Amino acid sequence: MLQKWLNVKRLLLQRSSSAAAAAAAAAAAAAGTAAFRLVRRCQYLMLQKWLNVKRLLLQRSSSAAAAAAAAAAAAAAAGGAAAEYLPERLIAEWVRQSLVLSHHRQVLLLVQQNANSLVRCQALARQQQQQQQQQQQQQQIAMQDAGKGKQIHKDRAAATDPAAAAAAAAAAAAAAAGNVTSTQPQWMHALKHKPHTDKDRGGRSQQQQQQQQQLQQQQQAVHVQ
Fold it and tell me: What is the pTM of this model?
């Protein structure tokens, strides 16, 4: 079992060297998006190698119980040496060997710098937007304060100027009087004194003459009785 693990490790190292060469060629060919492609490629290769190791482990586990017992005994005899050939150790070693080359490190640094610059640009854009909003709010507050200041200045000028105050009072009184006269009902106008005309005087004199004649007739009738 230990010999088989050594063979698996050797195969994985051979594939990792070829994968590193392919990744180096891809990074040298493309400059702009090479960083992201390299990261994706490394992730894909790591997943592929893990699946291969898992498949081999499943094949080994499906073997006879005697082989499993022998493998356990060999692992116990080997002690700490067997732990170095676990899949996690193989993958970690492959990743470490893949990133040894200088151009791989440069690519990763570029990826990190681009990510940092993107974060800084986003932070700067948010800061500028907040500054613009604050400026707009300050302008609105200044306009409101200016309008209030003008109204207060007008009120103070009217209070300090007696002529203006008198004119304002007269205008207010005139407006109030106009409102009072306009609100008077029509029947109040009918109660006002109207001058007597000639017709009214003639009618009243005739009524007085008739009343006097009636009184005279009544007196004569009394004397006759």
Answer: 0.23
